[in-house]
Specification:
The protein is α+β, with helices and mostly antiparallel strands. It is built from 3 helices and 3 strands. It has a single domain, classed as Nucleoid-associated protein YbaB-like domain (Ybab, Chain: A). It has a 3-stranded antiparallel sheet.
Length: about 130
């Protein structure tokens, strides 16, 4: 039995393109995917993967010293990154299906347990931190 490589490649390319279109539609519907967190008097926002887009250090944090500010920033960045990863997972998992969820997890985009985080405002539920 011969395999038609060109036909198989076209089939895979078509599936990838359809998944890309569905993902783009979903992201457009949900809006920008990010994570936001506040620790003490420090608030940060990050893109999925943890790239900071905003860091706000309030006056109380500045008065607490460099070590305390550093600790608050790092803590907020870690939480915001988990939230952004959870938001990305929630956005793309329905499009990618079960096998895609594994790939999302491999990229660090894990489901975020909202029940354990009372400050989390899931952007897919009308909020968006």
């Amino acid at each position: 039995m011969d395999i038609d490589i060109d036909r198989e490649l076209d089939s895979v390319a078509g599936k990838v393109e359809r998944a890309r279109e569905r993902a783009a539609e979903r992201v457009a519907r949900v809006g920008p995917v990010s994570g936001r967190a506040t620790t003490g008097d420090v608030t940060v926002e990050v893109k999925p993967g943890g790239l900071p887009t905003e860091i706000v250090i309030g006056p109380r944090a500045l008065q607490s010293g460099a070590d305390a500010v550093t600790s608050q920033v790092l803590s907020a960045l870690a939480l915001a990154t988990r939230r952004a990863g959870g938001a990305m997972h929630a956005t793309l998992a329905p499009v990618l299906g079960p096998s895609g969820e594994k790939h999302l997890a491999d990229l660090g985009y894990e489901p975020f347990d909202e029940e354990d985080d009372t400050d989390y405002d899931n952007p897919l539920h009308g909020g968006g931190r």
